[in-house]
Amino acid sequence: MPRWLQEQRARALAGRNNRYHPPSWFGRHVTRNLSPYVTWLFLRLGISANQASVLRFFVALAIASVFLLQQPEWWIVAALACYLTNVLDSVDGELARLRGTASPQGTYVDEFTGMAGGGVLLSGIVLGLCRMLGFHAIVPGLVAIVLLFLTRTHMHVLRSIAFEWGLPAPARESTLPRETGWVRRARKGAMYLLITPGLQYFPQLLIASVLDLLVPPFMLFGLAFNVRLLWLSLFALGLLLAAPTRAWRTVRYGISSQL
Q: What phi and psi values does residue 225 have, to the nearest 5 degrees?
């Protein structure tokens, strides 16, 4: 990265609140080394931070349309393209800090477009599976869409409150009361089914799409399945575990434990 771009990156990250958005290894070493190039381009084009947030939603909408195609090859392309939304998620904050326009209102736009974009992408996945395998494929998809909105709304509202009222830094795991066994197992189970640091769930979808090139559709419980629908069903199960445990931890330990 050129020196002038390194300096821009340092200024763009100087005011970032890592308390409520702790960076992953992938985010620090990959995404944050790619986003300055896009940020530089948007600065030259006069694109604002809020416009970049809205652009991320329309990019998600375009990617969702690719998931309507049935061939696994197109799903591989779409899953890889989803990473662009992660880069744009970094760019809008960098633009706001470089221009001095960061505000709670901008945070709301960022959080809302991110939540809406995730729902649009998942809707495209569900509709694509329904076209391939029939109406029964919509069941885990609807569960996943509803719970994705509930869990992400829960998190985004908490973060917005934290930014607006300046709540204290999140409590560390070591300072929290010990969880009961079933809560700990449910939370860890949800993490195994959902979390891939820095990229969320799309690497798992990418792997499922690659496997569908090798594994033909199969029958399971008397219904037509492929690896992608099996992945979506596991993802919905992860959300079923994540939604109540996150809500319970918020009530039990406070907002800071979830941020």
A: -130, 155
CATH classification of the domain holding 48: 1.20.120.1760
Q: How far apart are the first and last CA of the chain?
A: 32
E strand segments, 15-62? none
Q: How many CA atoms lie within 13 A of 156 on its CB side?
A: 19
Q: Is residue 18 part of a domain?
A: no
pLDDT digit string, tens, across residues 170-218: 445 545 556 667 767 776 676 666 654 445 678 888 999 999 999 998 9
- Would 251 be classed as within a structural domain? yes
Helix, strand, coil percent content, the chain, rounded in steps of 5? 75, 0, 20
Please determine, for residue 164, whether its predicted confidence score (pLDDT) is greater than 60: no
Number of domains into which the chain is organized: 1
Tokens of 211: 């496997």
Structural domain contains residue 86? yes
Residue 17 inside a domain? The answer is no
Q: From CA 172, how far away is CA 169, in angstroms rounded? A: 9
- Judged on CB neighbours under 10 Å (0-12, 13-18, 19+), 94 is buried
Q: Cβ distance 157 to 254 under 8 Å? A: no
214: CB partners within 8 A, 6+ apart: none
Domain that holds residue 60: 3-7+24-258
